[in-house]
Structure formats: structure tokens, C-alpha cells
Amino acid sequence: MLWNEKGNALIIDPGCYFTQEQETLFNFIKDKGLKPIQLINTHCHLDHVFGNKWVADTYNLELFIHPIEEKLLKVAPASGLLYGLPFDNYKGPVHFINQGDFIKLDEDQLQILFTPGHSPGHICFYCKAQNFLIGGDVLFLESIGRTDLPGGNHQRLLQSIKEQLFVLPDQTIVYPGHGPQTTIGYEKKYNQFLQGII
Ligand SMILES: [Zn+2]
Ligand SMILES: [Zn+2]
């Protein structure tokens, strides 16, 4: 979640699957007095979309994704069954966001970066003014996103990191979809998967 001093909030990739996880998110929002105003997915793998329907129903929101990701969203319940994780998919209106668009949280804005490779329509959210990136599953602390799932492409992932992420300032903080935060400069220096691409 991202929120501002007014308490307006964005919810990105709600992974909550179990009721207890929904309650954790619900209580967090309630305790902080936040008002969720937009629901967004970096991409539509299961662990990023499980909570879409619950969030949309609970906070009366509609979903924003990159258009290429819609296919994955539609097959998510079927792939959930393959993993033994049945769930209710979000079925409301889907709004598309593209490279160069901005997500607005009052006067703050996040720029959409198109970063395919881990999934075909993956996007990241870059806040230039506050120097951080919501990175999804592209770049992790000393690691990178897997590319063995349907629609994955290793070369494309490397290209996304090189052309979209490694052009950001070194001190940019990266908040990945999994694991601890890192920075662009740290990953340029220490990420073993990316030594050849700079
Ligand atoms: Zn993923
Ligand atoms: Zn993930």
C-alpha cells in the first residue's frame, strides 16, 4: 500500500488469499484511517491477484492493469486450480494503463514503466519526486524475476531491467513484490544475474 498525509491510499497486488490475510489488511487500513482509492496490479500472477475481488468489493474499487496482462487475469482461476488454490476472481471493469501513463495520488504521481519478461504485460511504478520504484517481480535484492512461467522471456526481462530500471538514479529505492527492498545502484554493483548488461 501507498498512502499520503490525507490518508488516501493505493492498493497494489493484494495477495491476500486466506480470510486471516484479508483481516490483516482490513485492520491495517482501519487502524491507520486510510481510504483506498485505487486498485492496481503490476502483473496478474496468482500471488498478486488473489485479493483483487475482496479489495474491490470491500472498498468499492475497480482494477487497473496493463492491457497485455488481461489474458493472464482471465486464466488465473484455472491456474489456481492447478496449484490447489481455488479462488474467486475479480470480475468487475478492467481499466488499462500503459507506458508513460501516470497513477495519481492527489498531487503525487507514479509513472508507469512497461517492464515485460517475468510476465508479458508487467509494469512498474516509479515515483521520481520521492525517489522510489514499486518493482513487482522484475528486480529483487540480488536476484531477478523467474521467466519459466507461460509468457516469460529471459532476454526480454534483461532488456526491461537495462532500458527501464537501470536508467533510473542509483539511489532509487526498489520495493519488490517479494523480499527486502534494495536500490538500483546496489543491484548494478552486486546482482550476479545482471553483471553483463550494464
Ligand atoms: Zn509474478
Ligand atoms: Zn510474485
Residues in helix, %: 25-40%
Overall mean pLDDT? 97
Largest sheet report: 6 strands, mixed
Bound molecules: zinc ion
Cα radius of gyration in angstroms? 16 Å
Structural class based on helices, strands and sheet pairing: alpha/beta
**What's the SSE pattern?**
EEHEHHEHEEEEEEEHEEH
Question: What is the tally of helical segments?
Answer: 6
Low-confidence stretches: none
Strand order, sheet with most strands: 6-7-8-9-12-13
Number of strands: 13
Strand-residue proportion: 25-35%
Global outline: globular
**Distance between termini?**
31 Å
What does the oligomeric state look like here?
Answer: single chain
Topology:
Elements: E1 2-3, E2 8-12, H1 19-32, E3 35-40, H2 46-49, H3 52-59, E4 63-65, H4 70-82, E5 94-96, E6 102-105, E7 108-114, E8 123-127, E9 132-136, E10 139-140, E11 143-144, H5 154-165, E12 173-176, E13 182-183, H6 184-190
Parallel strand pairs: 2-3, 3-4, 4-5, 9-12
Antiparallel strand pairs: 1-2, 6-7, 7-8, 8-9, 10-11, 12-13
